[in-house]
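cron nightly-structures :: item 1 of 1
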Amino acid sequence: MRTFNAPGRLDLSTEMLLLPACFRPSLRITLFKPFLWTNIAAKNKSSRSLSFPIVRASSVSTFSTASEAAVMAQDGPINQHPLQVAKRLEKFKTTIFTQMSSLAIKHNAINLGQGFPNFDGPDFVKDAAIQAIKDGKNQYARGYGIPDLNSAIASRFQKDTGITIDPESEITVTSGCTEAIAATILGLINPGDEVILFAPFYDSYEATLSMAGAKITCITLQPPDFALPLEKLKSKISKNTRAILLNTPHNPTGKMFTKEELEQISLLCIENDVLVFSDEVYDKLAFEMDHISIASLPGMYERTVTMNSLGKTFSLTGWKIGWAIAPPHLLWGVKQAHSYLTFATSTPMQYAAAVALNAPDSYYEELRKDYKGKKEILVDGLKAVGFKVFPSSGTYFVVVDHTPFGLPDDVAFCEYLIKEVGVVAIPTSVFYLDKEEGKNLVRFTFCKDEGTLRSAVERMKERLVKK
């Protein structure tokens, strides 16, 4: 029998023996109102009286016999309650990645939607994690990161940007870059502060800014090259702007902000005393140009939080090891928020992450070479199928125009692609404040093995027809 453990409570597998038989096969965990164990105990005089909140079986549960249903009915009608959520999150639904991955499983589709590899990370990093566990490094780490990892992050940052930072006061290790983003926003943004986003944007940005009560101003990057609309940025940025949230290389488009674009952003930030939160998780997946951290530009380090992670570079997305780099006066707010979000990140994985970040340059060169080959397979295939494919200079994503296939919008196209073709893509309208702006675009990922990519392309060639 499966067990259900609640903190400080009894093991449900043991106490299930106290239940009348009619309850046992139909008990399901749902989101309905709890009832008290004492209600059941009162019907079973031999049981001890317990106050144990559990979750009531839903009305869709089935009973093995009519008599069991009758006994259940004695407890009265089952009241279903609406799902509850705070107003700041009311507009946000289940993430598109969860929805599409569920459909992929249901329809046995090849998943080129969610950005996680279908191959494993390098053995030398996994072995380091195993060794750390065996060595007993399994208790809480200090909140802002173990010394080995902080030093490795500082060394990598110095190598990439030329900036020397203090591992102890200018780095906080987080549970993935998503938590680094959340800690940065919650630690440095006050309700009503204006933050500028570039659309399309990673979906957690809007949700986290909403939780912080920020005022979001959105500037849209337009295909085909998704260039920075400088005049639009100049018209939007002001003394009321608290921060710009930047992502380069850019998810979902694969765009990399050029040095000229970053310099223009920097000048405007300095002139208007604006912070930059820079998400750089794809910095090692740059194909056509070198990645530039905006913090490395003159006058920018003191107003920038640089965020990164291990998962994309080492194909270990499930480890959730990330970090934020900033001068002490900014990192203080990030640390404070991090302390009450997760406090500390997985200890043995931090030791392994330190080993990973000390990898030789040859590792990154092979990584780029491998992904460049995968990108060519997908891009060439998508073009052959009939998509209009937009340039991707970095990340492991490609954005295409789906309209040649005659579906009304991106969501309809992606549903058709899964159910009728057997391939998953992500509708990009979820990455815009104005969903209409993204309705003609969908995103594919090439962080899959070559066989998977070729199989997906073949399915689309066989089953997708231009209209």
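cron nightly-structures :: done
The first helix runs from residue 12 to 15.
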